[in-house]
C-alpha cells in the first residue's frame, strides 16, 4: 500500500475527531452544556434526558444568552468568550475556556441551539446534524439558551457501541450533575429523565441545605462541618461521621474552585484521615470545597477538565487531611472532654465549644493530646481485661461507676494512638448478657461485648508483639494433634508466626503435629479443636483483601480469648471494656471488619418523643 498524500482535514472531520476527547458519553455532554450555562451566569438550569441521554439531552438556562453573531461563532472550533490573552490561561475563572465543547457536541448529534441575549425579545435558532448547520431562524424568545442534542453518536457507530447500559449512563450523568449542584448552590437545578423528575435542587443558602435536597435531609443534619484556612488555601464542606460511611467512594465529592474534580491522591488523603475509624471496605461520605488562587491550580491538563494539577499538591493534601481530622476530632473528642484541661491549662470545650485552633497537634506522629489525668494502673497495657475470667477490678477504680466517666479516662491513656477519639460515655447496663449499653450526652451506644473485647485484645497483642513473642503456657504433657496432610503442611508453613504468638510446636510426623504450648490467653482450650479451628480460620481467604498471616492468626487468638456473648458482666468490667475500646485505634470495627458499636442519637430520640429541649 502506498501512503496517501498529506492533506488538511476538513473542519467537520476535525470536530468529529476532537469530539472523541470531549464527548465520551451522555454525561460528558451534560457536563459541558451545564458548565456553559453556569459560565453564562444563569440562576436556573433544567436538564431533560431521554433514554439515559442517548436519545435526547436538553439543557435550558436563563443566562446571558448569545446574539445571532455569537451563536455562529459559538459553533466554531476554538471560539470562546472566556479567554482573550495568554495570561488569561494561567488564571482561569470560568468552567469552560477551550472553545471546543459546542462544536464537538454538534459534530456527533442532531442538534438545535436557541439563544436570546438577556433583555432582548428576539433570539436565534440554529439546527443541524453532524456539525453542519441546516437551518437558521430568528425567533421570539426571552433571555437564555437552550441546547438540544439528540441521537448522540448517530454518525459514529463505533462510539455508540462503547456506551454502557442505560442505568449506568444515567447514574454517571446524575453523579456528575450532583457534583455540579454541590459546587453551585446559587443555581436552581432541575433534572428529568424520560419525563420524570430525577433531581430537584432549589437555590440553597448552605451546602447542608443542598446536600439535604440531593441526598436526604435526615442524613444532611448528621454531617459534620469542615472548615480550615491555611494561607491562600481554604477547605470547607461537610463530611459524614464514621458510622454513616459507605461501601464505595461514590459519595466523595471534591470541588476545586467551583469545579468538581477527580483526584486520586486527594481522595486517598481523605480516606487516610478517616482510616482509624473505618473498616477497610468502608469509605467516607464527603463534599469538600477547596478554594485557592486560580494560579495555584492548572485546569488545562485534560480535555474534559475532570482532572486538575496543583502547583503544590502536598500542601493541598495536608490542609485537607488536617481539615478532616479537625472535624472528626471535634465530633468525638472535644465534646467528650468537656471540662478537662490540656497541658497548657486552657480549658477545652468547657462550654461545649470547639477547641481553639492550635490546642492540639493533628500531625501524625506529632505531639498528641496531653495526658491531663495521671496515667495510672488504668493503662490497658498493664491491666487488661483478663481473657477468660474478667479482672479483679478494685472496687474503687470507678467509684460508684458514676463518678469518673470511663470514656474520658481512656482519652488520655494512649498518647501515641494518634487518633484516640471515641467516647462511649457511661455504662447503663447489659442487654441479653451480650450488649453493653452506655450513653454519652449525645448518644446511646450498644456495644457488642465479644467483638469489642476482640478489638481490644487484638491491638494489645499487636503492640506486645513489638517486644517479642507473646506469653505462652506449657501444656502438662505435649499433645499430639491429628490433622489432614494439607492442614499439617499449613501449620508447618506458619510455624514461626504461630510460635511468635505463643504456640509451642514440636515435631511433625506425617499429618500429626505435637503441641507443647499454647498462647497464655488460650490456656484451658482443648488443643485438638483449637488447632483445627485455627487452621480453618487462618486459611480462610477474606473477600478482596490480602490480610497478612500475622494479623489473621492474631485475630484468631483475640477472637478465641475474647469474652463471649451471653456472658453476664459486672458494671466495672463493662466500664473497663468500653474504656479500653475507646482507646483503640479502630474502635468501631473488629479485626474481621464486623461493626462493634450501634448507636442512637439522643437528638433523634428527643425528636421522636416530641421533646423540644
Ligand atoms: P467554552 O465554554 O470553552 O468557551 P464552548 O464550545 O462550550 O466553549 O462554548 C463556546 C462559547 O459559546 C462560549 O465561550 C460562550 O461564549 C458561548 N456559549 C455556549 N453556551 C452558552 C450558554 N448556555 N449561554 C451563553 N453563551 C454560551
Ligand atoms: Mg464550554
In brief:
With 613 residues, the protein is of the alpha+beta class.
Based on Cα principal axes, name the global outline: elongated
Strand content: 15-25%
End-to-end Cα distance: 85 Å
The unique ligands bound to this protein are: adenosine-5'-diphosphate, magnesium ion
Count of helical stretches: 19
Q: How much helix, percentage-wise, in residues?
A: 25-40%
Give the topology, please.
Blueprint (H helix, E strand, L loop, with lengths): L10 H12 L3 H14 L4 E7 L5 E6 L6 H7 L11 H5 L10 H7 L2 E7 L5 E8 L2 E9 L3 E7 L6 H6 L3 H18 L4 E6 L2 E6 L5 H9 L1 H4 L3 E7 L2 E7 L12 E5 L2 E3 L2 H11 L11 E6 L5 E2 L10 E2 L2 H22 L71 H6 L14 E6 L3 E5 L3 E6 H18 L5 E11 L2 H9 L1 H6 L3 E6 L2 E8 L7 H13 L9 H13 L9 H12 L14 E5 H7 L5
Helix pairs in contact: 1-5, 2-7, 10-11, 13-17, 13-18, 16-17
The chain binds adenosine-5'-diphosphate (ADP) and magnesium ion.
The site of magnesium ion has 5 residues, from helix 2.
Plain-language structure description:
The structure is a single chain. The chain is of the alpha+beta class. Helices cover 32% and strands 22% of the residues. The chain contains 19 helices and 22 strands. Strands 5-4-3-6-2-1-7-8 form an 8-stranded mixed sheet. The protein is elongated. The N and C termini lie far apart (85 Å). Adenosine-5'-diphosphate binds at residues 32, 36-37, 39-40, 61, 63-66, 74, 79-82, 96-102, 145.
Features:
613 residues, alpha+beta, 8-stranded mixed beta sheet, 5-stranded mixed beta sheet, 19 helices, 32% helix, elongated, binds adenosine-5'-diphosphate, binds magnesium ion
